[in-house]
Amino acid sequence: MYYDGWKPSETPVKLSGEDFLQRVRDDFPYAVDGGVERVVHTVLEVLERHVSEGEWNHLKSGLPKSLVSVLP
Questions:
Q1: Could you say which DSSP state residue 69 is in?
Q2: Which ranges of 28-64 does DSSP label H, i.e. alpha helix?
Q3: Residues 6+ apart with CB under 8 A from 14
Q4: pLDDT tens digits, the chain, 72 residues: what are they?
Q5: How many C-beta atoms lie closer than 10 Å to residue 51's C-beta?
Q6: pTM
């Protein structure tokens, strides 16, 4: 099957919560107090403050349950 403009290498990969955190650990080159889990949590807290409650709930509803566990 051919789809014009589709780039398989850019297709999102489904990750569990732990897989997501491991990917961030692998790609985040800095050591921080609290580890990468704290970095992810802080970034998501900031995001939550800057989107509407409806947008935040929509985001959460589209995530796998295992990934929702990393949300604040």
A1: T
A2: 35-50, 53-61
A3: 64
A4: 566 777 777 777 788 888 989 999 999 999 999 999 999 999 989 999 999 999 999 988 888 888 788 887
A5: 12
A6: 0.71
